[in-house]
């Protein structure tokens, strides 16, 4: 069975990171799991509060895995219905590397919300992880959704349909079919039902597993006390924090900004909407009592309590923001290289336009970006989730969201960055080179949510012969990584500051790394050249596709460790001479 395969894979990964004792979790490297009863439950507040002490992973299962991957929360076919199919070689390798990336010292924090029917699978993949359950009353979540117009922006109508279809599958229908009627419900009705179902599935999966509740309402009322309890639980030292700095009024999109102060429980909803959300969440819990364990429904009801704590305010209509950023149409200088710190640094970060061109050419050459549920070069997030690149099946090419052509490409994996470097006749910098080049650099212009997103690759007051955004805007992938056990998957350093990370010198120079197929909205590509890398050394799309396909074929060959397989991929992408 696939579930048995996943259990074996989880054991393989944990064995790479030392012995574990379930009764003493504070001294393991197993990550802390922060699981939300829904989105907008304060997970970003928790993440930012712990960022200085714990490396962060934001929804790696929902974001990093393609919806076709058997373990993706967005896969319409529950993994139990795959007919006992086993993970393919690429799917298995990717998942094992992604899991290994979550372990470390200091221990990492992994946030996941809206896992729905993949909740039990995720918990099984991380059997030694302590669990924090992030809760928020339904009207509070609904208020956040209304303020950001998130139901439409994040395609929650489709999400409701997907979850409702899964609820009718043979595995789940006896218990969940009645909870999600396919009656084309209006937004507050569907939202209330979804919150209840996700909470029920989470409560059910955690019946036999220790967990700690982190209430949104409690942390708003008593942030210092809440942080203190979390610090004691996780055995971390949280420095006292003042009030968060308010988001700049020039922010392009504050959806993901987490530095707005919150000290009141106010829901920007009219009374009808609030009553609908609350009623249908409670009605769903009532129907669940007919088919689920009473303890499960009682636990979910406890997590979803608190609507009465909110003061209702009539929603304020906010002006719609322009879909094109203010920098749209800004002229970008031709790529050039500036000598600095012993190597030549490209003047700008790699743009979305350049990345789209590369992805299109590789696809024509026989290397599509996504294979077997694995995003090899770039994670194609929807635009409203921060993605700026998408494949158009009609035009058969990759397109950039209008207005973002000159913005830096993010959601790029290390593999995608290394392929871009090889295609450009360049390489990625080492961490030491980046550290040296950043000494004495001007303060990061775009960091710590100052703008709310990455900005154009051009700094208005710099010329073509200067390096733009040497720090700030995005962190960058490096060519080297930390020294570790040879059997573990390879990792590569990230360096610098991004629009959504602090811009202090300590934060810029902090050592951090990710696995080769990891990606995020805060990491992009900066290229360098030296005497051994010039335009003449660039590799064509056909050669690069051949190397990548050869590595994928390698996965089905003789048994090798995860680390050895990754090193073969690194060699394939960084060797200058064409393969035979």
Helix/sheet category: alpha/beta
Gyration radius, to the nearest Å? 24 Å
Largest sheet: 5 strands, parallel
Strand content range = 5-15%
Number of DSSP strand runs: 18
Number of helices: 20
What overall geometry do the principal axes of the alpha carbons give? Answer: globular
Any low-confidence stretches, pLDDT <50, length ≥5? 22-27, 240-251
Binned, the helix content reads 25-40%
CA-CA gap between termini: 39 Å
Main β-sheet, spatial strand arrangement: 2-3-1-4-5
The mean pLDDT is 88
Describe the structure.
The structure is a single chain. The chain contains 20 helices and 18 strands. The chain has helices at residues 2-15, 43-50, 60-64, 89-100, 119-125, 138-148, 150-153, 156-167, 173-176, 187-205, 216-221, 223-234, 271-288, 294-303, 352-364, 414-423, 431-438, 505-509, 541-554, 562-574, and strands at residues 32-36, 56-58, 109-113, 131-135, 211-215, 266-267, 311-312, 337-340, 343-346, 370-371, 374-375, 389-392, 397-400, 475-477, 491-495, 512-515, 523-524, 528-529. Strands 2-3-1-4-5 form a 5-stranded parallel sheet. A 4-stranded mixed sheet has the order 16-15-14-17. The longest helix has 19 residues, at 187-205.
